[in-house]
Design brief:
homodimer, alpha+beta, Trna Endonuclease, Chain: A, domain 1, 6-stranded mixed sheet, two-stranded antiparallel sheet, 31% strand, globular, disordered N terminus
Chain lengths: 176, 176
Amino acid sequence: MLTFKNNKMINYGNRGMNLEYDVNLTNQYYMEKEIALIYKKPVPIKVLKVNDTKTRIKDGFYEQKSTLDYNGVYKGKYIEFDAKETNSKTSFPIANIHEHQINHIKNVLKYQGIVFLLVRFNKLNKTYLLSGKDLINFLNAYQRKSIPIDYFIKNCQTIELKYSPRLDYLKIIDIL
Amino acid sequence: MLTFKNNKMINYGNRGMNLEYDVNLTNQYYMEKEIALIYKKPVPIKVLKVNDTKTRIKDGFYEQKSTLDYNGVYKGKYIEFDAKETNSKTSFPIANIHEHQINHIKNVLKYQGIVFLLVRFNKLNKTYLLSGKDLINFLNAYQRKSIPIDYFIKNCQTIELKYSPRLDYLKIIDIL
């Protein structure tokens, strides 16, 4: 059985395999093999109340994410991405990406960072790497609420699920 | 009066100017002028208890940071750094840097990221950029508990405090 240093993983164990699980496993592999250093960002929490010694948080809430979930360094370059899943078999709903996140993707592109989404179609067992550029081009070109699967098939690389590394997305980055 | 979008700044207003305040102001300037995209990482919080609707955190604690406080993208490159202050006039205590952080700095260097500390000697009104490489070299060369001010004077670039950008550390990165 695979174990993790990052205790956040444990929460996902019960739910079975999912995209976030696969990504974390892959990042751990990249770190161990000294390929890249990629972290899941902590969830921003607005703290409203602490205890008297200020060691414990007694009230707070999750803040809305305005950036993507993962970032890090690969061959000196800045890399940032998010992992998104859909149960649709025909298209990926754009509502899955917050508007803040779309603006953030544009921003990272402006600074020549590597930015993308990993999009998994759960019921098709397919994971695609949708580059930030392709996403923005699609949004600019079409007034649609979702990206059809055909767009992924034509424009995006598939990432095969393997034993180790689980989801080798950097291989695709090397190609792009 | 200068205002901020990032509400974390407000907490520091009362305490008067400090290094973190200056860094946040500088990062905001870099963002507005489209020079770089650099964020303060959220503080990792271990959530122990949430309310019934899972919208509020009712118990939790701050986790120890194993990385540096700021990271982002500059000209496509990964950049990560921390801001450290000391009231000593003669040296910077190495105990100010957690061992986890030292390991992390070595790691970022391994992946060719730009990594450094901004070190402010409060009582000397001096802020130096100590590159990760210089820090690791010092630690390897000397068995000392602090880095003498002379080391900074001889090896590091000073960053002058200005109106805007407040603390132009990327100018030093361009030189290095």
